[in-house]
Design goal:
Elements: E1 33-34, H1 46-60, H2 72-82, E2 94-97, H3 99-111, E3 117-122, H4 128-134, E4 138-143, H5 152-162, E5 166-170, H6 182-191, E6 195-199, E7 223-228, E8 241-244, H7 247-256, H8 264-274, H9 277-300, E9 304-305, E10 312-316, H10 321-330, E11 333-334, E12 344-347, H11 351-366
Parallel strand pairs: 1-11, 3-4, 3-5, 5-6, 6-7
Antiparallel strand pairs: 2-8, 7-8, 9-10, 10-12
Helix pairs in contact: 1-8, 2-8, 3-7, 5-6
The protein binds 4'-deoxy-4'-aminopyridoxal-5'-phosphate (PMP).
Length: about 375
């Protein structure tokens, strides 16, 4: 495993604050049961894959030309998808990039930067501080409550004290699975002086009755809601993240994006996948059922389980979580050692994969 960050020789003129840093990433270990990066265990069908292949072939014939810089066809298709949930979203209010990772980095390039501050509430997605570091944005982490929700009073007090230019809220949150109380989101929006990003990478997995922040877009023009095709659409390998916001916010992001950042192959792939939305999202219901079933099994086995609206579950607690993680790997089951000390996170796989996980966990924790 090469770790360019920690092993950087002195002669490599790396920025001081990057010395000793390690590139982000979960271990990619080749085991039979991979439940560590919140991927969708169900790949696209043959029909969807054929459509992607045909669309990519058509795009290939034009690869001598740069792609549509504005990705207008794709943004129109994404707006149509979001319109299933909320009226009034059009292509001008949608932006797309190579994964929501890139979307969020662009947000900090445009709205963060030297002399500016970004803030979130930990434990949360561990990439946010890295986007901040990469864009020279000051980073502040507030704390979530013991149940991993947000303490609205403390959040508002912190926002008033720090006056952040960008606030990241994550709902459902990674790694805890927690969906935000809409009143808490509103309290943050009412007190934040700048941009508020609600990262909804796992939105499609939320339980019935849990609202999306999309509903607040009309009321709060500095709100950005980010989504991804990596999880619900089973398109992690396609790298397509997107956001909905006021068109003026989208226009501001266009200033910092690299020209032609979305390749014609990526645009063709994502547009083809969106034509199969119903089929791809059909698996989401099965995953939600499997999640709830797994949470029940973990509770029945005596574990603490965080309420989850996502396609993963945080559970614990273990005196030596690394030993448990390693013992599961030894049995061919890869989960994620992340989150607050003592907890582990398992992504929801197929029923057979989850059975393998529960069986291995039982062996590991009862011997
Ligand atoms: N936000 C959250 C909360 C995530 O968990 C992830 C992926 N693990 C992302 C954003 C980034 O996803 P992608 O770049 O694949 O869209």
């Amino acid at each position: 495993d090469r770790r360019p960050g920690s092993g950087t020789p002195d002669w490599v003129p790396l920025r001081d604050e990057l010395r000793g840093e390690e590139p982000y990433g979960a271990p990619q270990i080749d085991v039979p049961v991979r439940l560590n990066t919140n991927e969708n265990p169900y790949g696209p069908s043959e029909v969807a894959a054929d459509d992607v292949a045909a669309s990519v072939r058509a795009a290939a014939l034009g690869l001598n030309r740069y792609p549509d810089r504005e990705a207008w066809g794709l943004r129109t298709a994404l707006a149509a998808y979001l319109s299933r949930e909320i009226a009034g979203v059009d292509a001008a209010g949608v932006w797309a990039a190579n994964g929501s990772n890139e979307v969020m980095q662009q947000i900090l390039q445009a709205f963060g930067g030297p002399g500016r501050t970004a803030l979130s509430f930990a434990p949360t997605y561990s990439m946010y501080p890295e986007y901040a570091r990469n864009t020279h944005t000051r980073w502040i982490a507030g704390q979530r409550r013991d149940d991993f929700g947000i303490d609205a009073h403390a959040a508002v007090a912190l926002i008033e004290a720090e006056q952040p230019d960008v606030v990241f809220l994550t709902s459902p949150n990674n790694p805890t699975g927690t969906a935000l109380d809409p009143e808490h989101t509103r309290a943050v929006l009412e007190s934040a002086p700048g941009i508020v990003v609600v990262d909804e990478a796992y939105a499609e997995f939320r339980r019935a009755g849990t609202p999306s922040a999309l509903e607040l877009l009309a009321e709060f023009p500095r709100l950005i809601v980010t989504r991804t095709m990596s999880k619900a659409f089973a398109l992690a390998g396609g790298r397509l993240g997107y956001l909905a916001a006021d068109p003026a916010i989208v226009d501001a992001l266009r200033i910092v994006r690299l020209p032609y950042h979305l390749s014609s192959v990526t645009q063709a792939t994502a547009e083809a996948a969106l034509r199969h939305t119903d089929e791809l999202l059909a698996q989401v219901d099965a995953l939600r059922v499997e999640r709830d079933r797994s949470a029940d099994r973990l509770r029945a086995a005596g574990f603490q389980v965080a309420e989850s609206d996502a396609n993963f579950i945080l559970f614990g607690t273990f005196d030596d979580r690394h030993a448990v993680w390693q013992a599961l790997v030894d049995r061919g089951v890869l989960i994620r050692e992340t989150g607050p000390l003592g907890w582990l996170r398992v992504s929801i796989g197929t029923p057979a994969e989850m059975d393998a996980f529960h069986t291995a966990l039982q062996e590991v924790t009862t011997t």
